[in-house]
Design a protein that fits this description.
The chain is mostly beta strands. The chain is built from one helix and twelve strands; from the N terminus they run E-H-E-E-E-E-E-E-E-E-E-E-E.
């Protein structure tokens, strides 16, 4: 009797495991959508006739589009860098024009998923001062959360001709 053996060769295998951990920090940025910069272009509000001085005037059709990028929900606040405008003109000493109750702003569109403060929404222009005021609350996390603003000023007749400027600050804060 003859025996034959047919062997099946077993394949050898080996494995290795690697853990990968992502370490995410909380991140937030607010920029002007055009140019992706933190510095917007100068917005000019002209006053060339008595109707504009009496009733106020809005900025020309420029509405800055701001963009928030955040991995958490957020609020956006607005404030001015100074309580008074900086004057450039021929009058000396320089007149002091307050920002509060002269410069106003409204949110004209909101694509952040958050709620707009009613004092700054739907044809309501809210005053701007050095105290930050939330204009958007509960914005949703995302990489392209945008909103537009528009400015209006009502200086009245108490200030001489010249250029009055102030820096407006938009601050996004994670919740």
């Amino acid at each position: 009797m003859v025996f034959s053996y047919v062997g099946v060769e077993a394949q050898a295998t080996s494995g290795a495991n690697q853990n990968v951990a992502l370490t995410l920090s909380n991140a937030i940025a607010i920029t002007f959508a055009s140019g992706n910069s933190t510095n917007g272009s100068t917005i000019t509000i002209p006053f060339s006739n008595v109707v504009q001085f009496s009733n106020g005037n809005e900025a020309d059709a420029i509405q800055p589009l701001l963009k928030v990028q955040s991995n958490k929900s957020f609020n956006v606040a607005v404030s001015s860098s100074s309580a008074s405008f900086t004057y450039s003109g021929p009058v000396s000493p320089a007149p002091v024009m307050p920002v509060n109750n002269i410069l106003f702003m409204e949110v004209t569109s909101n694509n952040t998923g958050g709620a707009v403060n009613s004092q700054y929404w739907n044809e309501h222009y809210g005053s701007i001062s050095t105290s930050p005021v939330n204009i958007i609350t509960g914005g949703l996390a995302g990489g392209n959360q945008t909103f537009n603003v528009e400015f209006q000023a009502t200086p009245g007749f108490n200030y001489p001709g010249g250029v009055y400027t102030v820096n407006i600050i938009f601050t996004a804060t994670q919740l």
